[in-house]
Amino acid sequence: MSTLNETTKDFAHRLADVHLFSWGYFGYHLFSMFMMRIFLNSEVFISHFDFWSLVMLAENALIFGVLYLAKRFINNYSFWLVVLGSLALGAVRTYVTTSMQIIAGLGAGIAWPLQLLTGALFELVMVGVWANVNGAFRDHQKVVLQLSETKNSILGYRENAVEILAEEQEKLQSLTRESLLPQIKLIEDAINEGGLAISSRWGVAHELKGLIYNQVKPLSESLRQSAKHLVRPISKSVGQLSAVVSIPSRFRVTNSIFPLVNTITMLLCFLASPLWLLDDRWVLISGLMALPYFAILYGLKKLTANWPSLSAWVAVPLLFVFSMLPVLPAYTYAVLFYPSVEQAALYGNTTAFVSMIVFISLAVLDSFDYGSRNFRLALEEENRQLGVEMTLFEQQLWAARRNWSLVIHGTVQASLTAALTRLNAPDADKKTLDLAKKDLERAIAALSNPPATELNFSSAMKELTDTWQGVCEVKYEISTELKKILARDTRLSMCVNEICKEAISNAVRHGDARRAKIDMQIDAAGLIELCVTNDGAAPSASGRKGLGSALLDELTLDWQLSVDENRDQTVLLAHLPFSGSQA
Amino acid sequence: MGIFDRKVLVVEDEPLIRGLVSANLEADGFVVRAAGSTAEARKVAEDFDPDIAILDIELGDGPTGVDLALILRRKHPEIALVFLTHIPEPRVVGIDNRSIPRNAAYLVKDRMADPGVLRQAIEAAVRDRVSKDFRDDKNVEHSLSEVSRSQLAVLQMVALGMSNQQIAAERGTTVRAVENLVKRAFEAAGIDVETSNNPRVTAAREFIKVAGMPHGR
Question: For residues B154 and B167, is the Cβ–Cβ distance under 8 A?
Fold first, then answer.
């Protein structure tokens, strides 16, 4: 029921937002009117083609003149304005064209009320179909544009991966120099102040400086390989046109049958065709033929509801047959009871032909819609896969940066500070100097080896809960499957740990949370789902800004901070990919 | 109680530094207890009820020293805080600079070479009078220091008024790659794309301020 309501809302919205004063609508309108006249009275249409050309010129000048004025002077459109406007325009158009027919001697026996009603309805149907098809196309283009922008942005990042790595390397080297060289200078000064004998004894500080200038390589070879992999061109995606326009190789017939829309559209044909082909008394009878038409289509839809998807080679001809079946009652009745069998057959053929066009057009439009949806899904999936690759690379980069930062700000600087403090001690003796030398050697060793940090995830989480105890009671739950994955992937466990730390810290700092729960598991898409709920205050509107959000942007595929009003909880939900994740 | 009778909690994950700092403070007459992690610091703080905490920022796998400072202030509102770290400013390790509590001192460890500085910083923190001399995090210069060479080259082209298409042609790459490069260069230069009316103009201005007028190519 809700889907039906949404569809109705969508349709009403599209009708209110319909773009009629356009070349597209002009072409569509001209084509529809041309086809309608060919179907209804091809003989007269062809024999008086000059006249009908003039009629079509006049009616389009009228319609597009009115549409131009509407565009110029009406700023806000509503559903009812478009509906009533279309009906009025249709009636006026019919009045003008029918009057022209009468003047030309081609309109004998015209029933004005019926003529005006069918003309008004025909115009409304044309506007309705255009609003829906063109609206769907514009909605589709909007989504595709957004997805393409996302894709371009990801591809732009990928193409720069090697450059990003080089920039990162440069930054880390500069960080290393800026952090360490002043300390080494102080150490050298201290050694020099200690006398020539000491400085000649060890050139370790000098060696350390050389190492920092020439050999420091904070980023690993595996990261370089990842960057190279990202830069490789990706396989070309399917073009939008071929994805949308091509008929699916297999489809379910039932999805291409639309009893109600078909019947409403055919009702016009049932009402209008007797005016030209039979006589006025048959308008009502022909109109009632819409009922068996609907019943047969409805029956066909029900009959095929459980059919499996069929090859297009079988399903398409079947659709053609199905388009003819519902016209049989009208055809048979006319042939049996109308005085002229020839005219009755003409009426029957016209309705059958129009039914086929309407039925197949709706099926094709649905196929476009199906193709568009599939194209959007494929684009979304492609973006998702590219996003996973990019996030994995960013995780790797973040871990490398953090590891190096830990080495520099941890082991290396601690060793240098220790050496400096020892050298500055007033009672420094030979033993103290030897210890200072060892400190420097420790720094050299830390800088010479690729940084590697081990992390025991369980201990880290225990540390988190113990630390916050008394201020914020933190509980956590982690699935067995994820535990195993984290145990074998240090980089991933570093990322998850960092997000948990950040989430709790922010919940207390900004929301004054007293209780928090962390849930971690592998979700259906094969990603790590990290959910942190807390009883703190709701995030502010600008909650996405700041370094915490930058960290989440970097390490996760997507994340959102929301408020669960039912439970009065603030919820952070993030998804992280990992090497070997399905997504 | 004189300032040197006060109880100091030293939280530092590097045993070497922890030992050195503790020894120095003890030599200065402080009563010192040390912890190597945040969880351990919490336990020690409960029994010890410190007047002053000397905190490193990076404390291994658990919460940071900045988080610990928040907890200690909640549990011991009068506690004086001194951050003693190798990190020039918290932002470097992804912590918002504004997270440093009010009236906390922030010293980089290089300054430990001067033994008097830590003592003076403690005194300033205890008296709630932490001057800029003891907030090393506020003495960090910014502008384009975070910008890499290639980003600087892109900013130069932006300052020359080149479009992304022209930059892409110049660098022999795609427009989308340049879009990404420009975006990252703006981020590194601290230019907020969302709030700045015209980020390219802001970028050009920043570039000219630092590197002077760009020369045509």
Answer: yes
